[in-house]
Automatic annotation (TrEMBL):
<feature type="zinc finger region">
    <location>
        <begin position="3"/>
        <end position="34"/>
    </location>
</feature>
<keyword id="KW-0547">Nucleotide-binding</keyword>
<dbReference type="InterPro" id="IPR055173">
    <property type="entry name" value="NrdR-like_N"/>
</dbReference>
<dbReference type="InterPro" id="IPR005144">
    <property type="entry name" value="ATP-cone_dom"/>
</dbReference>
<dbReference type="GO" id="GO:0008270">
    <property type="term" value="F:zinc ion binding"/>
</dbReference>
<dbReference type="GO" id="GO:0045892">
    <property type="term" value="P:negative regulation of DNA-templated transcription"/>
</dbReference>
<keyword id="KW-0804">Transcription</keyword>
<keyword id="KW-0862">Zinc</keyword>
<keyword id="KW-0238">DNA-binding</keyword>
<dbReference type="GO" id="GO:0005524">
    <property type="term" value="F:ATP binding"/>
</dbReference>
<dbReference type="GO" id="GO:0003677">
    <property type="term" value="F:DNA binding"/>
</dbReference>
<keyword id="KW-0678">Repressor</keyword>
<comment type="function">
    <text>Negatively regulates transcription of bacterial ribonucleotide reductase nrd genes and operons by binding to NrdR-boxes.</text>
</comment>
<keyword id="KW-0805">Transcription regulation</keyword>
<keyword id="KW-0067">ATP-binding</keyword>
<dbReference type="Pfam" id="PF22811">
    <property type="entry name" value="Zn_ribbon_NrdR"/>
</dbReference>
<keyword id="KW-0479">Metal-binding</keyword>
Length: 175
């Protein structure tokens, strides 16, 4: 393993632990050259399907790319890195279980949004606004209305009336 600090190729393992889900091993290593410590993770390399993008091009699945998109959607939200990783893990489990060797980027976006919808509605709508590329304000409002109907918000009739008035105001402004 190459040291991230001095690029020396020899190290020793100081500590090894299995993750809670037992799907990876965390290793603390110490460089034999600079004596600094760093952490590595080992996990089984899954045979992920190829991703078919909207322009019909194909690319290899990239966990870091998916994680980066989720982190952007979750900026300034009370969502931990562990929760983001759990969403990525759940989507990967679903993807590996698929019978084919290819999956559309649309499928991945849908799987992520279904995970985010339960985790955080604001992060969900942020991710969905990029993934679904809403064509206009009406499509965006329809998505928000769909969230409101499916939410477990226990607001009173006054809350619903205020939201309906806000929706009407937005509809009138966009016309």
């Amino acid at each position: 393993m190459r040291c991230p600090f001095c690029a020396h190729q020899e190290d020793r393992v100081v500590d090894s632990r299995a993750s809670r889900e037992a799907d990876s091993i965390r290793r603390r290593r110490e460089c034999l050259n600079c004596e600094r410590r760093f952490t590595t993770y080992e996990r089984v390399e899954e045979a992920f399907p190829q991703i078919i993008k909207s322009d019909k091009s194909r690319e290899d699945y990239d966990r870091a790319k998916l994680r980066r998109g989720l982190r952007i959607a979750c900026i300034k939200r009370p969502i931990s890195i562990e929760q983001i990783d759990a969403v990525v893990d759940a989507v990967e489990c679903q993807m590996v279980a698929l019978p084919g060797r290819e999956v559309s980027s649309d499928w991945i976006g849908s799987a992520v949004t279904s995970e985010l919808r339960d985790l955080d509605p604001v992060a969900y709508i942020r991710f969905a606004s990029v993934y679904r590329a809403f064509s206009d304000i009406h499509a965006f409002l329809e998505e928000l209305r769909g969230m409101d109907v499916g939410s477990s918000h226990a607001g009173g009739a006054g809350d619903q009336d205020a939201r309906a008035a806000d929706d009407n105001n937005l509809d009138n402004k966009s016309s």
